[in-house]
Each structure stands twice: as C-alpha cells, then as structure tokens.
Recover the amino acids of this structure.
C-alpha cells in the first residue's frame, strides 16, 4: 500500500469480513470478488455519514497486493490536485470523500484525467461520497458524465439493532464487557452516527481502564454526559 507523504493512515485491520452487512449483502459480495476475477471496475459508493464508506474502500485496499493499490481520502487537509498524477500506474485507486473537492475546477479536471487514464490502462477505480453523483456540485460536465456512468451503490444504513450488535462486537474485540442494556442506553441517549458510537466506545474503554470500573449505565452517564 503506497502512502502519500501526509498524515494519511490506512487501518490495516479493516476487512470486508469486519463490515456489518445489514442490507448490503449484494454490495459486499460485489466488492469481495474484485480480487478473485480479472476486473476493470469503476464503482461509486455513497451513503450517510458513518455508513461505512471509508471502511469499504479501505477493505478493498487491504484485500489487494500492497504495491498495486492506493487509498486517498480527499477530506484530508493539505492535499493538492497534482497528487493524482501518476496514480494510473496502480491497479486499484480508492478515492474517499469526493464531495470534499466537488466544485473545485482544478480538482475536477485532475479527477477527469485520472478517470480516463485508469480506463485506458484497464484499472479499477472506487470512489466514495455522501451523495449520489447526480447531486454533487460538479461543474465539469465531462467528469459528471463519467461519475454517473460508474456502477453506483447506495450503502444502506444499519438499523438500531444492527448498531447494537456492532457496538457489542467491537467491544468484545477490545476485551470490554459491554452488556446489551448498556448498548441500548447509548443508542437511545446519543447520536446514532457510527463514527460517534465508535468514538464513544473508545472513550469508555479508556475511562474504564483508568477508573478500574466496569462499563455500566451509570458509568456511561458520567463519562459521556448523557
């Protein structure tokens, strides 16, 4: 996996197997087969914040040979359009958060040229966004036409029951005792955004280690201010 000379971190433990499927079975099967068949896939994933877009892009990156893949989150501060030059040498290019540069002419032109180069080279391109391509504020019509021509998947949001299962799975992986009543309380009293929930779990984990206390509903109230 090539890393750009910035604070861009790829979670090496993220896999398609660790993604809670919910109603996304078809999408997951589609992504999982990218390494088992010769493909020239251009895939556009979109969904609500915390729906797992970054997880899936990183999972695809991790399931392929490191030298053939690059992962680039466009929401990172300090990136420039020139960084897209030369990326067509990779078999898999995973571009996260295209929303962050929509409307920027230089970025749009750079993405347009990269798209064409990857197509000519028979490579794979995966793009994520919080919106479908038709709702992006893209000003370069040629780029918009190419984005809409990609295979588009909407990532279906998890139900509250799915999120409870995910919380308890992540807690178990950390060796944390996190009972169903605690998970239900967190979901009923806080944001249901997955990023927030994972951050809250990490905060509770650290606080319980410092206080040497089990994670109970009263403890959650104190630590998270719920």
């Amino acid at each position: 996996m090539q890393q750009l000379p910035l604070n861009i971190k790829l979670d090496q433990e993220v896999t398609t197997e660790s993604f809670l499927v919910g109603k996304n079975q078809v999408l997951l099967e589609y992504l999982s087969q990218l390494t088992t068949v010769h493909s020239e896939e251009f895939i556009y994933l979109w969904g609500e914040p915390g729906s797992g877009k970054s997880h899936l892009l990183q999972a695809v990156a991790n399931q392929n040979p490191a030298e053939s893949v690059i992962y680039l989150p466009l929401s990172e501060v300090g990136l420039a359009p020139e960084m897209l030059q030369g990326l067509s040498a990779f078999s898999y290019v995973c571009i996260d958060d295209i929303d962050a540069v929509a409307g920027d002419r230089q970025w749009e032109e750079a993405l347009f040229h990269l798209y064409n180069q990857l197509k000519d080279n028979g490579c794979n391109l995966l793009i994520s966004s919080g919106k479908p391509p038709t709702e992006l504020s893209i000003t370069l019509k040629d780029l918009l036409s190419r984005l809409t021509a990609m295979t588009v998947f909407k990532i279906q949001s998890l139900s509250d029951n799915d999120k409870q299962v995910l919380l308890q799975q992540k807690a178990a992986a950390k060796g944390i005792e996190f009972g169903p009543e605690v998970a239900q309380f967190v979901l009923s009293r806080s944001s249901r955004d997955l990023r927030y929930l994972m951050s809250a779990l990490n905060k509770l984990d650290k606080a319980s280690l410092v206080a040497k206390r089990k994670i109970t509903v009263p403890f959650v109230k104190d630590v998270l201010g719920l």
About this structure: The radius of gyration is 19 Å. The chain has eight helices and five strands.
